[in-house]
Amino acid sequence: MVHETSGATARRVPRHSPSSSRRARCLRHSRRQSSESSLARLPLALLATLLVGSSDAQAWAGEGGEALFQNKCVGCHANGGNVLAAGKGLQIQDLERNQVAAIEDVVSITYYGKNKMPGFGEKCAPAGKCTFAARLTDAEVRDVSQYVLQRAQEGWN
Predict the structure, then answer these.
(1) CB under 8 Å, gap of 24 or more: what pairs does 63-67 form?
(2) What CA–CA distance (Å, rounded) separates 7 from 116?
(3) Whose CA is closest to 131, among 72, 64, 68, 65?
(4) 42 with 33: CB under 8 angstroms?
(5) pLDDT value at position 43?
(6) Which parts of the sequence are annotated with region: Disordered (predicted)?
(7) What is the pLDDT of residues 97-124, one digit of tens each?
C-alpha cells in the first residue's frame, strides 16, 4: 500500500502485487485454452453433420441418453442414487417399489417432474414445477429415460 496525503487526511491506494498480475495472466491463459479447445472440436462436429446428417450427427457426437444424463441428472442421481429423497433413487428396486419401472412412467416424471424433482420437458408447466435450465425435447426425454431404465436393469454397474 502507498499512502498519499492531501491536506490533513491520508488515503491508502492499493498497489498491484506481482501475485495478482500472475493470477490475471493464468486466468487469461485458461480462458484462451478453453476457447481454443472448443474451436478444435468445431470442425469435427461440422464434419459429422456433413457426413451423416444433423440428427445422426448429434447421436454420433454423444448427445444420447448417457450424455443427457451426465449433463442434466447426475448432480442429484449419480450412480442411480437420489441426494434429495432417500428411497426415490433410480435403482431398479426403488423404481419398482415406487411403481415407476415402466418407460412411460420414467418419461412422465422426467418430462413433468414429481415432488422435489423438476420437470425437464420443453412444454412442462407450471413454470415453478419445471427446471429453469434449458429444456429437453420429447426425443431427448425418451432417450434419457431409456438410458435410466437400462442402467437400472444393469444395477448401475
Answers:
(1) 63/140, 64/143, 64/147, 65/143, 65/144, 65/145, 65/146, 65/147, 65/148, 65/150, 66/147
(2) 62
(3) 72
(4) no
(5) 44
(6) 1-32
(7) 999 999 999 999 999 999 999 999 999 9
Q: How does residue 8 score in pLDDT terms, banded at 50, 70 and 90?
A: low
Looking at 54-68, 126-140, 141-155, which range is the least confident one?
Answer: 54-68
Contacts of residue 3, defined as CB under 8 A and 6 or more positions apart, other chains included, come to 10, 11, 12, 13
Overall pTM > 0.85: no
Closest-CA residue to 145 (of 119, 118, 116, 111): 111
**If you ran DSSP here, which 8-state letter would residue 114 be given?**
E
Q: Which CATH architecture has domain 62-153?
A: Orthogonal Bundle (1.10)
Distance CA 142, CA 139 (A): 5
Amino acid at 117: M
Question: Three-class SS of residue 36?
Answer: helix
CB-CB contact of 90 with 156 (8 Å)? yes
Sole residue written with cell 491506494: 13
Q: Is the pLDDT of residue 81 over 60?
A: yes
- Cell 492499493 -> residue: 14
